[in-house]
Amino acid sequence: MIWVDTVLQGVLLGGLYALFALGLSLVFGIMRLVNLAHGDLIVFAAYLILLLVTLLGLGPFMAAIVALPIMFALGWALQRVVLNRVLGTDILPPLLVTFGLSVVLQNALLEGFSADSRRIPAGWLETASLPIGPISLGVMPLLTFLSAIAVTLALQWVFYRTSLGRAFRATSDDPVTASLMGVKPASVFAKATGIAMIVVTIAALYLGTRANFDPTTGPARLIYAFEAVIIGGLGSLWGTLAGGIIIGVAQTVGAQINPEWQILAGHVAFLVVLLIRPRGLFPRAFD
Amino acid sequence: MALLETRGLTAHYGDFQALFGVDLDLAEGETMAVIGANGAGKTTLMRSIAGVLAQSPDMVRFDGRAIGAMAPDDIMAAGIAMVPEGRKLFPSLSVEENLLMGCHRRKVAGPWSLETVYGLFPILKERRHQPGTALSGGQQQMVSIGRALMSNPRVLLCDEISLGLAPVVIKDIYAAFPQIRETGASIVVVEQDIGQAMKVADRVHCMMEGRVTLSGKPGELSREAIHDAYFGAAA
C-alpha cells in the first residue's frame, strides 16, 4: 500500500513539474527559444501573488487571477521589446539574453524582497486532505495536478482548434512562408510568450502555496521544467505533462527508498529516458 | 494605370546583384508570364514583389501605393498572394488548415472560400484532414495554390508551379487557370516550362541575368527570339 501511496503522491507532484514545464514547452515549440529565465519568472510571479495577497488582502487564488493579466502583459512586452530582437538563425543570442535576464531578476528580487524564504498563505487549504480508502491525498497537490491537466487541455485547444494556434504551428514550421500568409511572426511570438506567462503564474501559485521560495529558487525549477520538456519530446504538450509526472514519481519513489535520493532519482530518471529514447517519448514527426 | 508595377527594380544578395533595373507592368485582370533559365532572377523578382526581400519603396507599386519596403504580411493583407517555389506547405497543418492559413489575416469577401477551392480541386476535399505533406507533389501544389486563393487576392504570384511535377500533373494544374482568371484576379506566372507559360499568358517577359531581355504577346514572339533572349544571342 505504501507504494501505491508513493506513486500517487509522485503523480500529483508531477503535476507541479508539468506546470513549471508547460510554459517553457510552449515557447520552445513555437520559436525554438530556450528561456533560461523561466524559473526566475515563476519565482517573480510568486512574489507578485504574495504582494497582492499581503497588500490587498486577497486570497491566493484571487490574487493569482489578478496577476494573470499583469504577467501576460509582461510576457508580451518582454518578447516585443527584448526577445524578438535577438531571435534568428543563431540560437546563442537569445540564450545569453535570457541568462542575463535570469541574473537580473534574481538580484532585483533579492533587493526588493530580501533573501528570506517566503510562502503564500493558503489558510486551511494548506493542510486539507481527502481520504481515499487507506490513502489520503492533499487537496493542494490534487488541485495542482488537476490544474496541470486543465492547462494542458487548454493549450491543446488553443493549438489545434483556434486560428491563433494555427498561426503558432505555421510560424513554428516556417516563419517566412507564414509571413507570406499574412502572419506577423513578431506579434505571434509576443502572444505566445504572453500565454506562457499565464501558465507561469498558475505554476507560481502552486509553487508558492506548497513550499517556501526565495529569490534563488528559480534555476532549480528551470531544471525540472527542462527535464520534463525533454522527457516528453520537444514541442509536445501531452509529452511535457507525462515528463513532469515521470520526474515526480521518480522523486517520491527515490525518497521512499532513501530520503537522500529524492532529487537524484528525478535526474536519474531523466538520464535513463534520454538513453532509451534520445528524442523523448513523444517527439514531433519532423524538425 | 497598371495594378502592379516595378520600376528600376534592383536586388542584391550581399555583393551579388541579382536584378538590374527591372520594369514590368501588370494590368487588372491580366496574366503575365516571366520565363528564363535558372539564375535569371525570376524568383528574386517574385520575392521582391512579395516583400520577402525588402527594396526601396518606389521600386514596387501596387494600386498606386509604394510597397517596395513593406513587410510580406502587410503586402499579403493588401492583396498580393504568393504560391511560393517548392510549394512550402506547413507540415504540422492538415490540408484544410493549410488552406485556412490563406485567409488568416486578409478576410475579404470574394469568389474564393473553402467550398470553391474544393470545387476547383475536388481531390483536396477528400484529403482535407490529412497532413499537407502526405499528399503527392501535384496535390501539394493544388493546396499551395488554393491557400493563396483563399485570401481572394487581387494579384496571384505563382513561382515555378510546374517544378518537379510530371507533365500530365502540370496540365491538370494549369487546367484550373481559366477559372482563376474568370474571377478577375491578375496573375504572374514564373516558369521554366515555356510552352505552359505561353499558353496561359497575355504577355510574356523573358529574363536573363537579372534583366528583361524580351517582352511581347505570346503569338508575336518567334521561337528564335525566345531562344536568343533565354540563352543569350549567339554573337
UniProtKB/TrEMBL annotation, chain A:
Pfam families: BPD_transp_2. The keyword DNA-binding does not apply. It comes from the Bacteria. Its main location: membrane. One of its GO terms (cellular component) is plasma membrane. GO terms for biological process: amino acid transport. It is found in: Cell membrane. Keywords: Amino-acid transport, Cell membrane, Membrane, Transmembrane, Transmembrane helix, Transport. The chain crosses the membrane at residues 12-34, 41-58, 95-115, 135-159, 188-208, 228-249, 261-278. It is a multi-pass membrane protein. InterPro entries: ABC_transp_permease, BCAA_transport_permease. GO terms for molecular function: transmembrane transporter activity. Belongs to the binding-protein-dependent transport system permease family. LivHM subfamily. This is Branched-chain amino acid transport system permease protein. It comes from Palleronia salina.
TrEMBL record, chain B:
Coiled coil: none annotated. The keyword ATP-binding applies. Belongs to the ABC transporter superfamily. This is Branched-chain amino acid transport system ATP-binding protein. Pfam families: ABC_tran. Residues 4-234 form the ABC transporter domain. Keywords: Amino-acid transport, ATP-binding, Nucleotide-binding, Transport. One of its GO terms (molecular function) is ATP binding. It comes from the Bacteria. GO terms for biological process: L-amino acid transport.
